[in-house]
Write a structure and sequence with these properties.
The complex is a heterodimer. Chain A is α+β, with helices and mostly antiparallel strands. Chain A is built from nine helices and 22 strands. Chain B has one domain: RNA polymerase II/Efflux pump adaptor protein, barrel-sandwich hybrid domain (OB fold (Dihydrolipoamide Acetyltransferase, E2P)), CATH 2.40.50.100. The chains are: A alpha+beta, B alpha+beta.
Chain lengths: 362, 131
């Protein structure tokens, strides 16, 4: 039996087609995935992301703990509310999960981890906490809504407390503010402006309905996937996992190599890979022929196999098909994709494909 | 399933067939099939003149979610394809039994139509699959 978020019945009453995802029953769409995608690119849409897990990490040693745990360095977070995207690695340099961590105070950090990996993550967090004075508390009492799109902030802010409205207007990208148990972050997974908002579970339905009344369209996992793909954002378990390092997953930018003496979990394995000129690359593909790129399709340069698509699909903003792929080093600017026994040409590009509603393709 | 036209025949693989009465049939996918697929973004049409076998795959419809083969419900030669779907695959979502038709076939054997389901039998099949 899949778990249900507090909004489960609300989704059903709004026409959500519920499907299993990461152990949860979540809305795939509320009628048309394409319309929901466009709504986010052009106006404002909202996603129930309550299946993801908020974890509070507290204690006097929380910062040294996180500097050991994460491949990115929380030392970069100088002021309260600042957020950092990071991978959490195993000793082999594979990705245990990707996450966002917020600096609340010097003794309190807040993390948001993926739904399907939550139990594994919590066990990993506990195991790595050995020897550190840190408490780890999953906040199952909090629900979370992502409000995304060029008009998302303007539509969401009037529905919040006065103090959140004041702080929220001034909020910089990748920063968060709090008021009681409400937590508002200017982050997202769509390539558009907007907020991710944590709300006490017993208040989330009324907030969701108020957002809907304010013209923020409910959107499902389907649109969330095409939006993040266009925005060049990885999906854990599809684009990277415990077998693939951040360096082979387009996430090299999230690894903080300096200072050299910071010995984060997986560092020594990554150091070896870092110097390997033959390590695999992570690239974007744009299909120039006809069809739709799909996960796991094989790539060729002539007769030579050169890699595989990790996630692919139709990009509604571009009206063509795009993908991420893991390929061998030294490939050119084009390749062929094997689709149903036929070879179809594709162009190799650097993600993102779309940012703030605009195509990045030249 | 009140929207299953009774004047059509159906294949178990969710195609519909309209007997045009002149030895040709028109083929598309059902309302139920388009609903399962979601928003369609690409249709790979058969070629005019191609010889189709009943039960053989002959076209592909791709939605935002997945690709799905379309099987010919009948044996015969393709006489016409719906070129309009090339630029507007969503027509199938909007009007699966009408403007969203996919191809037309000149039947080798008109008797083959008797092997297909009527609307009641098709509805029963869909109801069963839903369980």
């Amino acid at each position: 039996m899949d778990k249900q978020t507090v909004l489960y019945e609300t989704h059903k009453s709004m026409g959500g087609k519920m499907v299993p995802f990461g152990g949860w029953a979540m809305p795939l769409h509320y009628g048309s995935q394409l319309e929901e995608h466009h709504q986010v690119r052009r106006d404002a849409g909202m996603f129930d992301v309550s299946h993801m897990t908020v974890v509070d990490l507290e204690g006097v040693q929380v910062k040294p703990y996180l500097r050991r745990l994460l491949a990115n360095d929380v030392e970069k977070l100088k002021s309260a509310g600042k957020a950092l995207y990071s991978c959490m690695l195993n000793e082999q340099g594979g990705v245990v999960d990707d996450l966002i961590v917020y600096h609340m105070s010097d003794t309190w950090f807040r993390m948001v981890v993926n739904a399907g990996t939550t139990e594994k993550d919590l066990a990993w967090l506990e195991r790595q906490a050995e020897g550190f004075d840190v408490s780890i508390t999953p906040r199952r009492d909090l629900a979370m809504i992502a409000v995304q799109g060029p008009n998302a902030r303007d539509k969401a802010l009037p529905l919040m407390s006065e103090s959140l409205q004041q702080a929220g207007v001034a909020l910089k990208p990748f920063s968060a503010v709090m008021d009681g148990d409400w937590f508002v972050a200017r982050t997202g997974y769509t390539g558009e402006d907007g907020f991710e908002i944590m709300v006490p579970g017993d208040q989330v339905e009324s907030f969701w309905r108020q957002l809907n009344d304010a013209g923020v369209a409910p959107c499902g996992l389907g649109a969330r996937d095409t939006l993040r793909l266009e925005a060049g954002m990885n999906l854990y378990g599809i684009d990277m996992d415990e077998e693939a390092s951040p360096l082979e997953s387009g996430l090299g930018w999230t690894v903080a190599w300096e200072p050299e003496e910071r010995n984060f979990v997986g560092r020594s394995a990554l150091e070896v890979q870092r110097g390997d000129p033959n390590k695999q690359r992570f690239v974007g593909l744009v299909l120039t022929g006809r069809g739709v790129l799909r996960n796991h399709l094989k790539l060729f340069d002539g007769d030579e196999p050169i890699g595989e698509i990790t996630s692919g699909g139709f990009a509604p903003t571009l009206e063509r098909s795009i993908a991420f792929a893991r390929v061998k080093s030294g490939i050119g600017e084009s390749c062929e994709v094997e689709m149903r026994g036929k070879r179809v040409p594709a162009q190799v590009v650097k993600p993102p494909f779309v940012r703030q509603g605009k195509s990045q393709l030249t | 399933m009140s929207n299953t036209p009774t004047d059509l025949r159906y294949a178990k693989s969710h195609e519909w067939v309209r007997d045009e009465g002149d030895g040709t049939v028109t083929v598309g996918i059902t309302e139920h099939a388009q609903e399962l697929l979601g928003d369609l973004v690409f249709v790979d049409l058969p070629e005019v003149g191609a010889q189709l076998e009943a039960g053989g795959d002959c076209a592909v419809v791709e939605s935002v979610k997945a690709a799905s083969d379309v099987y010919s419900p009948v044996t015969g030669e393709v006489t016409e394809v719906n070129e309009a779907l090339d630029g507007a695959p969503e027509t199938i979502n909007e009007d699966a039994f009408g403007d969203g038709w996919i191809f037309k076939v000149k039947l080798d054997d008109a008797g083959e139509l008797d092997n297909l389901l009527d609307a009641d039998a098709y509805n029963a099949l869909v109801a069963e699959e839903d369980h």
